[in-house]
Amino acid sequence: xxxxxxxxxxxxxxxxxxxxxxxxxxxxxxxxxxxxxxxxxxxxxxxxxxxxxxxxxxxxxxxxxxxxxxxxxxxxxxxxxxxxxxxxxxxxxxxxxxxxxxxxxxxxxxxxxxxxxxxxxxxxxxxxxxxxxxxxxxxxxxxxxxxxxxxxxxxxxxxxxxxxxxxxxxxxxxxxxxxxxxxxxxxxxxxxxxxxx
Amino acid sequence: xxxxxxxxxxxxxxxxxxxxxxxxxxxxxxxxxxxxxxxxxxxxxxxxxxxxxxxxxxxxxxxxxxxxxxxxxxxxxxxxxxxxxxxxxxxxxxxxxxxxxxxxxxxxxxxxxxxxxxxxxxxxxxxxxxxxxxxxxxxxxxxxxxxxxxxxxxxxxxxxxxxxxxxxxxxxxxxxxxxxxxxxxxxxxxxxxxxxxxxxxxxxxxxxxxxxxxxxxxxxxxxxxxxxxxxxxxxxxxxxxxxxxxxxxxxxxxxxxxxxxxxxxxxxxxxxxxxxxxxxxxxxxxxxxxxxxxxxxxxxxxxxxxxxxxxxxxxxxxxxxxxxxxxxxxxxxxxxxxxxxxxxxxxxxxxxxxxxxxxxxxxxxxxxxxxxxxxxxxxxxxxxxxxxxxxxxxxxxxxxxxxxxxxxxxxxxxxxxxxxxxxxxxxxxxxxxxxxxxxxxxxxxxxxxxxxxxxxxxxxxxxxxxxxxxxxxxxxxxxxxxxxxxxxxxxxxxxxxxxxxxxxxxxxxxxxxxxxxxxxxxxxxxxxxxxxxxxxxxxxxxxxxxxxxxxxxxxxxxxxxxxxxxxxxxxxxxxxxxxxxxxxxxxxxxxxxxxxxxxxxxxxxxxxxxxxxxxxxxxxxxxxxxxxxxx
Lengths: 197, 631
Hints:
Chain A: Pfam families: AUX_IAA. The structure holds 2 protein chains of 2 kinds. Chain A is α+β, with helices and mostly antiparallel strands.
């Protein structure tokens, strides 16, 4: 029923009298598509008499097909036939993946803290670069043996157990799930973190 | 009869008959067989709760131990049936609590179940063993607590896909300490966390537990505790399948799975993290049923898992598996019988995954036992459907949903009539079919001509005219359930095939072109059908006779008009549209006039269309065979 309203538009064949700049015949493909979509159906008079409720919603969705607009379509009730508990499951998944993992970043001596979204970064190099930019400092090269050599600063983080850990030891995914806050340590304390004790 | 067997002998013989059809046949042989059979029938299946009344059932079958019943029409799953439509089980429970004190099993689908009903069940049936509530609603966890607390011999509590008002997880703690009889527990649809220690103890003291389906709230780290206490499990539904990536969690999980040597079915996997999938690898070779339809894992990880399940018979998965994953499935799982691929982004405008018709074609080529398919995709071609049909002529269930309504063959831009035609022509055992895409009346001609074993047909946004519906109603000999939405089918085919409707369980038509007048006429012609109009715009009398109704639900019944119709449902009764209290107000003469003009129109129209439809016989006047009206 919803689709039948379209029929009288194509009957008037407005396209034939339309003034356009394109070469004749360039629009064939689109025409074929829309003709196929509006399959031949007579629109019964009764539809107009009663004004079926759902008609306008679906009509606008067909309109948007014709103009090939990428705008979101009006959703048809019960289509596609997916049960509500499945839809809910997918929705929660989406919102979860959209929310970021925000952690506080403190730097020794700085007047206030910052916050960053760990999800934005793909790995340690990106994270460290961002910290360097944010606090205008250099952090130095990470090595398992020596920590962060060649700089006054060392990035550390507080994990789930409350321990202060050096950034870079564990795989990135594990770091993302266990990091509670970041702390950029400076000076002798920082040197104490890296290298042999 | 001189040489008849004593009743006891006949009863003993009948006790070996489990199929309803056999028992129905037996009861038609003669009066004494009817009597003997009715006293020893223990299991009843009622496909439509309104087809018969509790009193009629109880009167005929006094010794029932197990009831299975369905309520709302299937399209209720997709929100097409308004809230409050019906399907209440309480009248049945009330009647049975008096009549069947020995009742052991109740299995319901798409029915409204209240806490009151659950409490009545818990109080009334001392030997109650099995409660399966599939896609039901209307009850809370308090009702579950009653069942848990009072049913001493409870074997199965299965809430699959029901909508439960989750007041708390405390219900599980109501299982008494001496309850050791559980065989199957499915609480996967519940949201709240249950007391884990109560769950652990329950699992530990039920040595016969075979099926355990947890809900999302049960954490993965604790799953090993349960598995160690139930190593005999055959079917497991995990909770959320994610945790902090820690080696101890992983190794505990791996070890726990390895202990479960009998596992055949796995489900759950909410929020699954690929890192934990390998923990299951030890059980994969025994797995026959795998439901990954909540797992948003990508194709490579899915493939790694699935290719280890060499004995897989059933796979439910999201379209993240993509064509490449299905190809791998086809190569590894030669025993596959059922495949369901669900859409990860059903409302997105553009495809988000590389899943096309090709995936299904690959599976149809590689899996010789494939017989049941549910497939959501965004493009389809006649060529692909023809290939699938030729590859798998033993297909029994074929449900294809092309997400865009009326999408044509993407290669040729033609309708998909030929493709679906090939399906019904080649797959001679096809019992269930759901179609989508661009379809004309032609496809219905193919269906009417070939789909002789088809029992259930679902149609949406298809067809050109009444001829389409006429082909189906006149040609499909085995048709039991027909559900149609948004198709240009109107009065003619429906009225011309009115008698066919008495041979079916039900017909659903929504957003079609069936007029109010035709509904009334149908109700008048067919007293053994309930012709119910569902219209939320208000009484159909307030609009012209020719105005199409919003929704129509027609079903055969021996129970007459139902007493629980809500305000938006009217039963067509001759010249009146009756609401629940029996009131209706249309004068008789209008319908008589309409009726006679309809009569002339049918005959003309029908004789015209019969010329073009070769295999139609005069089914307009059918003789009603003795069929079990419960189905």
